[in-house]
Backbone:
């Protein structure tokens, strides 16, 4: 068999079949070579790859993963450049610890975070409070309503600018928060499946089950399966040494505490705790920090320091 080798990007992965878009713009359904299925080197949507194919394209194998800039486990996606964290003030109620954990992972991985508060028709006051909290913490925040389309033009323009030079903007957030609905409001040509919330728990039902990339501007937007509250419970994404810097809003207080080895959890003379008391840092941000401190303290540092 004559073998053709081409480079491209994995745009979809479902049940062991991967769709690769080659740099020439053709789409092939591929299997992954055995070594790319193991946990440590697993092929992810977003990976740039080499594919080997027969002339007619019937036999396609992803044979190699090219250099990765980063890899997320939740959502499972490689080379994310912008993480669009979708939240709502209600339906489902937001989990700030989960949001803050994902934002910390972004900071650590060098991924630009963008926060979108959606369902503004259902949760106007709650969304405004969240908007103030995260803008004060220095994050870029947008407000949208997928039902009326409010705020979608502004968000689309911002994403277009961010993706102009390539990259992947991944929409992530709790199940049922409205990621797929928002993507359809932003890009009407996408006909993504969406699902109602459970009446009993007002939570989502995991309607989206796979990650998929769609062309936009010079790069891609990605829909991802919503996470549940348990997904970030077991926090193992970086080491204790990197924790403080994963909260960009804490930066002004670095090195300002009375004790050099201050853990910023309970010490006297802690500049960060003073900032929380005086309303310069949101208590919820510090609570997440303290929770992660307790979790990471018990772990051996096996991560390369950045
Ligand atoms: N009122 C209102 N409902 C919305 C809005 N956005 C989404 N919804 C509804 O919220 C429900 C869940 O929306 P989805 O888009 O499926 O949520 P998702 O985040 O993709 O959920 P998963 O795929 O499970 O992760 C659907 O019933 C949507 O119609 C909004 O802005 N306003
Ligand atoms: Mg969805
Ligand atoms: Zn301190």
Residues:
């Amino acid at each position: 068999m004559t073998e053709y080798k081409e480079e491209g990007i994995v745009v979809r992965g479902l049940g062991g079949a991967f769709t690769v878009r080659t740099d020439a713009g053709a789409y092939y359904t591929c299997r992954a070579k055995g070594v790319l299925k193991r946990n440590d080197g697993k092929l992810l949507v977003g990976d740039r790859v080499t594919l080997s194919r027969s002339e007619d394209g019937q036999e396609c194998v992803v044979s190699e993963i090219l250099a990765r800039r980063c890899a997320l486990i939740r959502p499972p996606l490689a080379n994310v450049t912008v993480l669009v964290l979708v939240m709502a003030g209600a339906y489902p109620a937001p989990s700030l610890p989960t949001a803050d954990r994902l934002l910390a992972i972004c900071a650590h991985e060098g991924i630009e975070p963008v926060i979108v508060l959606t369902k503004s028709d259902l949760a106007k006051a709650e969304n405004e409070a969240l908007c103030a909290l995260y803008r004060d913490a220095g994050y870029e925040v947008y407000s949208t309503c997928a039902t009326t389309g409010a705020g979608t033009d502004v968000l689309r323009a911002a994403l277009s600018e961010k993706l102009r030079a390539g990259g992947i903007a991944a929409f992530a957030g709790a199940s049922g928060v409205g990621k797929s609905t928002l993507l359809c409001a932003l890009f009407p040509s996408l006909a993504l499946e969406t699902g109602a919330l459970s009446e009993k728990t007002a939570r989502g039902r995991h309607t989206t089950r796979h990650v998929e990339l769609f062309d936009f501007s010079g790069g891609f937007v990605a829909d991802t399966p919503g996470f549940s509250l348990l997904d970030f419970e077991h926090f193992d994404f970086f080491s204790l040494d990197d924790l403080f810097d994963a909260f960009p809003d804490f930066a002004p207080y670095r090195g300002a505490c009375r004790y050099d080895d201050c853990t910023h959890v309970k010490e006297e003379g802690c500049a960060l705790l003073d900032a929380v008391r005086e309303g310069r840092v949101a208590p919820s941000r510090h609570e997440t920090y303290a929770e992660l401190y307790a979790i990471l303290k018990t772990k051996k540092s096996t991560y390369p320091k950045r």
